[in-house]
Amino acid sequence: MSAVQLGPFVLGWERFATLAAVGVFLIAAEIIARWGRVPALSAWAGQAVVWGFIGARLGHVVQFPEVFLAEPWLILAIWQGGFSPFGAALGAGLVTARALHRGLAPVPAFGALWLGVMLWLVLTLDFAERPEVATPQISLPMLAGGEFAFVEAPEQPMVINLWATWCPPCRRELPMLADMAASRADVTFLLASQQEAAGTVHAHLERTGISDAHIALDLEGTLARHYATIGLPVTLFVASDGMLAHVHVGEISRAVLLREITALMP
Questions:
Q1: CB atoms within 10 A of CB 50
Q2: In a 3-state reduction of DSSP, which class is residue 130?
Q3: Which of the listed residues 23, 136, 211, 260 has the most CB atoms within 10 Å of its CB?
Q4: CATH 3.40.30.10 is the classification of domain 139-264
Q5: What is the full DSSP assignment across 73-109?
Q6: How far apart are CA 156 and CA 190, in angstroms?
Q7: For residues 11 and 4, what is the distance between their CA atoms, to the nearest angstrom?
Q8: What percent of the chain has pLDDT over 70?
Q9: Residue 129 — very low, low, confident or very high, per pLDDT cuts 50/70/90?
């Protein structure tokens, strides 16, 4: 399972696990605070989450200065993902140290934290050992002509993006993905339109000035079925041996894309 659908919203599994763990932590802290009549516990929990979130985002930002200095507004584009576990631990840790110095009772505080961490571990470790998924042995028509045959793909990392012209996040990230595809000879990019006619895709690219060099037409949604993905957009990171290494559900940023490509490199 790479994602979970909550009504009209689709969340990547890791993001869902993190939100669920944070929710349990906050609820547990509130219950313990009211039951034990220690309001400082509830205040600390809220501050730890806020500053942990800020630390996680800033920790990611400082890892990719070339991206965020060029487009500073992307710092606020949190829906694209990009958070540092170390930054989160640092932000929450500083708040916790300050609260403990001011008299926060450590046993109930770490009890609530333990519940959140255990839930996160259960949700993530339960799905950590996913069955290996190789690339499908199919060929897809390319918008520019010819076909992309997975069996003939070069033995190098691959980024497969599943998108559609009717999907707003897909439209936002597509120019960046096309730009990255044109600039990286060491990575194979396949931007696969899902179940759309060639004329519809071509018209969108002409209107937006995006090259059709890496655009494939997945007319039957074969890739989404093969990789069991939910929703759009989805970006798949495939290692040089053809095995699926990572799935990013939702809009992706240039920084996250660079991070995951780097992780694929030997």
A1: 13
A2: coil
A3: 260
A4: yes
A5: GGGG-GGG----HHHHHHHHHHHHHHHHHTT--HHHH
A6: 13
A7: 5
A8: 96
A9: low
The sign of the dihedral angle between the CA atoms of 17, 18, 23, 28 is positive
Hey, what amino acid is at 52? G
> What residues form DSSP beta bridges with 194?
218
Query: Measured between alpha carbons, how far is 43 from 104 in angstroms, rounded to an integer?
Result: 10
In the chain, domain spans: 3-125, 139-264
What string of DSSP letters covers 32-56? HHHHHT-HHHHHHHHHHHHHHHHHH
Three-state DSSP class for residue 153: coil
Instruction: Give the residue carrying structure tokens 């961490």.
Output: 117
22-58 tens-digit pLDDT? 999 999 999 999 998 888 999 999 999 999 999 999 9
- Backbone φ and ψ of 234, nearest 5°: -135, 135
C-alpha–C-alpha distance, residues 146 and 163, integer Å: 20
